[in-house]
């Protein structure tokens, strides 16, 4: 497992430090800041903040993060090379009123988030993670992250909300909101307040999930596997962040770049993405629109005769549409690796294997956004990926994944983003076992493969975009 071993070790640290989407975004932002990316806020104007050669990131809700780097030859109307992932995973989340007890035990009420394999959560040592909203001495209320990774719970009550019966009274249905110390066990409030460094009465509310306290680790005879929670989809999120940072690490990386390089890591994919911070929101279209109408003068360059110049000052009104028509999105989410115990459940000619490279997801009913022009582009991207270590193969290996006709196909953020943006899109992802389990298994070499692929995509897209033309 020597190939890309540094990336794998760093990825394991990323997993262990990211028990919730809030932590994942914080971990990503820390990496981006260290690499020189500047923090933007959606509520501010970007007209004077964004410059050619600049590197930026922004967050929404603390659980979604978007980062981009602007080529020095980029102008409104030019393409954007985009990678989209998600930060959330199926979990158990504390209910607004979690206080329960029975037979001498303190219990917490939880509800299911996403389509998890819930039986895998029993007989596990569970901790708590998430965020608390804390009132400061000046009266401001701010988010503080919390991660209690010592085992606090052994099992959880998984009681779904019962339907209101017709004979219940209005008082039973509609009761006033209880104070936080009445809704949750005082012991729980004390744990959270100690973790965030606040007095219990200053903890206004919190969003807390249960998490496995067992750390991510390498496994297999040759450390060929990664065993962890949340591989779906921190696998893709980590690779997106690392590849964007790596693609602009050289001080001259953006000198001749006519495109923009962007990653978008969304929350709430596991529950449909229909939230303000989800992929099916206005966030990414809004960001692209804001960038497309930045004052053209800010990007003027006396030596820009070779610039990939799609929009002039006179047609800036259509820069947004021109940018989207020339852009490309790689929607990255893990996929089901072939399981030797259930090999008959896979389409016979499309069995993605771990450590053999990312799989391109294809579905005739458009559950994935992949089409043949996208496959042609990605093949060229993979072919052009340079070696990083002596053990690397020529290019990045790719696989093809199709679900059997009699099996229901899942979906990703790819189709929803391609439909709202109108940008060309391809779905892909690294193969894993036990998807949506509390502990999943992925290939350790596949982290290196995916980082190389994304890095090549960012580096080569400007040139490749002009060679594949389908109107």
Describe this structure in words.
This protein is α/β, with parallel strands linked by helices and 471 residues long. It has eleven helices and 19 strands. The chain has helices at 5-16, 21-34, 170-173, 180-183, 186-196, 231-247, 283-292, 319-326, 372-384, 413-421, 444-465, and strands spanning 38-39, 55-60, 64-70, 80-86, 91-102, 105-113, 126-135, 141-153, 203-212, 217-219, 225-228, 260-266, 328-332, 335-336, 359-361, 399-401, 424-429, 431-433, 440-443. Strands 1-2-3-12-4-13-17-15-16 form a nine-stranded mixed sheet, with helices on both faces. Strands 10-11-19-18-14 form a five-stranded mixed sheet. A hairpin with a 5-residue loop joins strand 7 (126-135) and strand 8 (141-153). The longest helix is centred in the C-terminal third of the chain and has 22 residues, at 444-465. The chain is globular, with a radius of gyration of 23 Å. Residues 160-177 have low confidence and may be disordered.
């Amino acid at each position: 497992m020597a190939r890309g071993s540094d990336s794998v070790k760093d990825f394991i640290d990323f997993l262990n430090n990211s028990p919730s989407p809030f932590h994942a975004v914080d971990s990503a932002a820390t990496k981006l800041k260290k690499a020189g990316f500047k923090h933007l806020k959606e509520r501010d104007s970007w007209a004077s903040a964004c410059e050619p050669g600049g590197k930026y990131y922004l967050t929404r809700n603390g659980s979604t993060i978007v980062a981009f780097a602007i080529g020095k030859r980029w102008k409104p109307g030019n393409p954007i090379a985009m990678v989209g992932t998600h930060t959330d995973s199926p979990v158990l989340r504390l209910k607004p009123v979690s206080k329960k007890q029975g037979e001498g035990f303190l219990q917490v009420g939880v509800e299911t988030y996403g389509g998890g394999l819930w039986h895998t959560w029993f007989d596990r040592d569970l901790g708590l993670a998430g965020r608390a909203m804390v009132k400061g001495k000046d009266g401001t209320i701010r988010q503080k992250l919390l991660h209690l990774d010592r085992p606090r719970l052994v099992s959880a009550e998984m009681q779904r909300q019962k339907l209101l019966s017709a004979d219940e009274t209005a008082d039973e249905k509609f009761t006033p909101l209880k104070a936080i110390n009445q809704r949750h066990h005082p012991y729980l409030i004390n744990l959270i307040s100690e973790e965030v460094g606040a007095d219990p009465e200053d903890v206004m509310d919190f969003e807390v999930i249960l998490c496995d306290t067992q750390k991510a680790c390498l496994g297999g005879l040759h450390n060929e596997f990664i065993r962890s929670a949340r591989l779906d989809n921190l696998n893709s999120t980590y690779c997106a962040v690392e590849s964007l940072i790596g693609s602009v690490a050289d001080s001259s990386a953006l000198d001749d770049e006519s495109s923009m390089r962007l990653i978008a890591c969304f929350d709430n994919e596991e529950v449909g993405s229909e939230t303000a911070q989800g992929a099916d929101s206005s966030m990414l279209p809004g960001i692209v629109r804001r960038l497309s109408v930045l004052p053209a003068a800010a990007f003027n360059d006396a030596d820009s005769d070779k610039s990939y110049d799609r929009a002039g000052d006179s047609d800036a009104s259509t820069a947004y549409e021109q940018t989207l028509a020339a852009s490309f999105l790689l929607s990255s989410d893990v996929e089901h690796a072939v399981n030797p115990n259930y090999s008959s459940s896979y389409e016979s000619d499309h069995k993605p294997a771990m450590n053999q490279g990312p799989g391109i997801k294809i579905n005739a009913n458009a559950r994935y956004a992949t089409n043949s022009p996208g496959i042609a582009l990605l093949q060229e991207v993979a072919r052009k990926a340079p070696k990083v270590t002596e053990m690397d193969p020529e290019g990045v290996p790719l696989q093809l994944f199709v679900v059997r006709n009699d099996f229901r196909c899942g979906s990703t953020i790819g189709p929803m983003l391609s439909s709202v943006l109108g940008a060309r899109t391809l779905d892909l992802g690294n193969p894993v076992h036990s998807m949506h389990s509390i502990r999943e298994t992925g290939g350790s070499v596949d982290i290196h493969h995916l980082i190389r692929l994304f890095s090549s995509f960012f580096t080569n897209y400007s040139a490749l975009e002009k060679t594949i033309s389908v109107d």
